[in-house]
Amino acid sequence: MSQFTDVTITREANIYFDGKVTSRSVHFADGSHKTLGIMLPGDYEFGTEAKELMEILAGDLEVQLPGEGWKKVAAGESFEVPANSSFKLKIYAVTDYCCSYF
């Protein structure tokens, strides 16, 4: 899906790692939400509360999920992160992403 309809967007950005990772929250009528964001090159670690689906729209990166080794992720691919865990990212080129929460 390249377009969302009937949504509310939070005006203020979510800003992490001194502005190297930013996103905007998108809220749907059914109560679900996603974030749309950009990550600049760097190494990052994120914690989760809910299960997440990270869809990579553009970019060049590797992900390390809990208990796994590093895995290359390309534009058009996605990965899931369990709830109440953490994951690491190595971003090699500006990366555009959509994160869904469950």
UniProtKB/TrEMBL annotation:
Pfam families: Ppnp. It is an enzyme of class 2 (transferase). Its EC number is 2.4.2.1, 2.4.2.2. Keywords: Glycosyltransferase, Transferase. It catalyses: xanthosine + phosphate = alpha-D-ribose 1-phosphate + xanthine; guanosine + phosphate = alpha-D-ribose 1-phosphate + guanine; uridine + phosphate = alpha-D-ribose 1-phosphate + uracil; a purine D-ribonucleoside + phosphate = a purine nucleobase + alpha-D-ribose 1-phosphate. SUPFAM superfamilies: RmlC-like cupins. Belongs to the nucleoside phosphorylase PpnP family. Catalyzes the phosphorolysis of diverse nucleosides, yielding D-ribose 1-phosphate and the respective free bases. Can use uridine, adenosine, guanosine, cytidine, thymidine, inosine and xanthosine as substrates. Also catalyzes the reverse reactions. This is Pyrimidine/purine nucleoside phosphorylase.
